[in-house]
Input
Amino acid sequence: MEELDAHFRRYLGRLAGIRKFSGAPEGLDVEFDLLTFEPGEGGFVPVISRGLSSHVLSMGVARNTRVELLMLVPETLSELAESRICDIALDVFRSHRAPGRSQVLDQRGEVFPDSDMNALMSVAPVYQGSGFFVLDTSAERILFPWLMPITAAEAEFVELNGSDAFEAVLEESNVDMRNPYRESLC
Output
């Protein structure tokens, strides 16, 4: 856990708060922390799980991995981000599968109030720098997917055209994808 905490300090900044999550929904014994950091670049707050990586998850046919889940939100939405991370974490625990690259994970309705975002997509966390996404510790490899809010139209675009096509749309835009009140790109 020491290497993990050092990684968080290096890439996410100064810790602002910790909330513990534990319970046994549907017979799953689940325990992890939700860490909130001080606002970073652009005023967005990193909210990330700590402890999910103690569980080995399948990823693909013959690969296993460990993950911690990240969201980047305005400070006023940090508690809602914690709730969304918990939702996805429980899905991960139920399935024993790590989120895939550019996978649309959650379409349970409005991600944030007064926002057109209604799904989350697992992507590389581009705003944290190139060294953040993968942590190779002395014992294991941990991935840090960003749960990026997207609109229903964007989720449908990914489904119809694939994640590579959506990533091309992202690269062509100048939109800050951390902004939950942004216009849809599709």
In short: The chain has a mean pLDDT of 91. Residues 104 and 159 are 8 Å apart (CA to CA). Helices lie at 2-12, 78-95, 152-161, 163-172. Residues 78-95 form the longest helix (18 residues).
